[in-house]
Amino acid sequence: MQSLGTTVDRGLEGVVVGTTELSAVEGEAGRLSYRGFDIRDLAANATFEEVCYLLLFGQLPTAYQLEDLRVRLAANRAVPKPLIAWMESLPKDASPMTVLRTMVSALALFAPRLADGAHASTPRAAIALIAKTPTLLAAWDRIRRGLPPLEPLPHLSTAANFLYMRSGKSPIYEAERALDTYLVLLADHSFNASTFAARVTASTRADIYASATTALATLEGELHGGAPSKVMAMLVEIGTPDRAGAYVRALLERGERVMGMGHREYKVRDPRAEHLEVMAKSLGEAAGSKWYAIARALEDAATAALAEAKPGRRICANVEFYTAPTLAGLGLPPDEFTCMFACARMAGWTAHVLEQLHDNRLIRPQAAYGGPATAAWTPIERRGHSADAAARPGN
Asked: Residue 135's pLDDT is what?
């Protein structure tokens, strides 16, 4: 786009705004890596705790380092009692993302401060945020259902603890493994919208809690983190696998999108989707859930229909597509899907904040002005009353 002789890259698509050692997205090849480790290897072999260590400290942990991190996460999972009491006073129909964003911001009220009153943006603070975010979500899930929140158990992993704190039962292996894999796959993704927003906030020297809150607010939009709930709505509407083809045709005839299909970065299938598909299938078989079968039929129908509508262009499922049947298979309601995304991405967000602060420069882009070149001042008594109603305050 050209504006007054200046090239404007709307959405910053294709614009390189910084460097990172945390993750790399190779869209043409369909590859994602964390600090050089391919996401396929990490999804198959690593736990979420190992990935947290990798992102925060730059290398895979030894057995001792991993156990130390597990102990530190366990020690930080409990949230301040006043926050639990606050959540219990909130309207039960409040949006889970609104509640989570508010409570993550409020964690700063109980965090240690430096001598000047500021919060330290350190790995210790990052670990506290990673540990407490799933606890906050599990607590709100129970509170909104009229149930008392449960304390985390120190011997359980991040994934198992969340499932326990939500249900009060020890999770089956398939459920813990599915959620742990989900957390690994969603932990980081280079300079996506929420991560970039967090880095912009951090570049002002705002603390890690402010930066994490910014990221959460950005994730809430359906063009970033809100798509899985839209995918789930499609699966519910379809109802059975045999109806997927007709549903897709009707959707495209109305000029609407198949949510969860396609990705700005990936030109082939999102590498995270294949692992989530395996988890969704495993959960479906273990729990007798129908959502995977519908999702698989929907992807096949959508891929074929989109290939016909746009010859030469392959549009495949992204990570959000199989997030829906995976999280639904774990019993989460659709309006908590984006919150679960945040629980995973908190690892990446906090690592990016620390990286930004390590070699900081204020992020302050320019904008091309597109308004009138000049305007003459008119006293209020001489201004006309024919202005469009849309210009009135409140419109």
From this structure: 98
